[in-house]
Amino acid sequence: MIILTNDDGIDSPALKTTLNALSGQKTLAVVPSMDVSGCSMCITIDRPINVERKMIDSHEVFACDGKTADCVLLAKTMAKEPVSGLISGINTGPNLGIDVLYSGTIAGARKGTLLGIPSVAISIEKNYKKKEKMYFESAGLILSLIKDLIFTTPPPKRHFINVNIPNQPIKKIRGAVATVLGRRGYVDRMKEINNSDGKMSFICEDEEVNEDFTPQTDSWAISQKFISLTLLKDMINGSVSNWDLNPWIQAINTFLEEKNEKI
Questions:
Q1: N or C: which end of the chain has fewer CB within 10 A?
Q2: Residue-wise pLDDT tens for the chain (263 aa)?
């Protein structure tokens, strides 16, 4: 059984694609009832968590009013058979560089890893400054392969894989590469806004991303239309294994070559 979670919530535009990509594999989907992006490893400890069963087409999904890490723990508790893998995503928007400290998508995979479950976080690039078509189907095709790799070649203990996919038609994706975290930062600002009840109110302004496109970093890979695979540790201050990502890279590249030959 695979656990599926996300941080974009039950209304995620990528959820239907994600569920379809996992078809054929027994899946327990537990996601937040709303978008909780940026929640990191936050868990709910001050109240009960409510869970509601929903159907998306023919797929059963459980929506909870907690965060992503809550969803993973709930799914592990609800599972009636052994859990062999966990997918967190498909996230709308990349998780690169410093994003891994804030991302609920990353937290889902990290929580799974802490529970001893082979886990993968998967995201698709998005430019938030302009409207663009989202090629969720490309991410779905890659996920349809990853769902098998997580069983045949799972990440080493206490590690998980962060996958970022360019927002491109599948035929324009150049391949997959192993990467390290790049220096991707934000210009964080809070802006005061008018509040009719006299209280002080602030809102986080649009963030300006400062990216370092040093070769072999995750940001560089996405900018060059490569799929980025980064091995991460379950604990932020832990050293990363030298585990070989080549079997994953080769499998994805072969898959892309065969897929593009048929297009």
A1: C
A2: 999 999 999 999 999 999 999 998 999 999 999 999 999 999 999 999 999 999 999 999 999 999 999 999 999 999 999 999 999 999 999 999 999 999 999 999 999 999 999 999 999 999 877 788 999 999 999 999 999 999 999 999 999 999 999 999 999 999 999 999 998 877 777 888 888 787 888 887 767 677 889 999 999 999 999 999 999 999 877 778 889 999 999 999 999 998 777 66
Instruction: Enter the tokens of residue 234.
Output: 């379950």
Range of 49's domain?
2-181+214-262
Asked, for residue 54, whether it belongs to a domain, the answer is yes
108, two tokens: 């889902």
> Is position 150 within any domain?
yes
Amino acid, single-letter form, for residue 151? F
Give me the phi and psi of 99, to 5 degrees please.
Answer: -55, -30
Question: What's the number of domains the chain is made of?
Answer: 1
The model's pTM is 0.94
Task: Report CA-CA distances (Å) from 118 to 74, 98, 131, 157, 202.
Answer: 17, 23, 35, 8, 40
Q: Where are the beta strands (DSSP E) in the chain?
A: 2-5, 27-32, 51-56, 59-64, 85-92, 119-124, 159-165, 175-178, 184-187, 190-193, 201-204, 208-211, 226-233
Q: How far apart are CA 193 and CA 147, in angstroms?
A: 45
CATH number at residue 239: 3.40.1210.10
Q: Which residue, 64, 58, 51, 78, is CA-closest to 6?
A: 64
| Residue 194, domain member (yes or no) | no
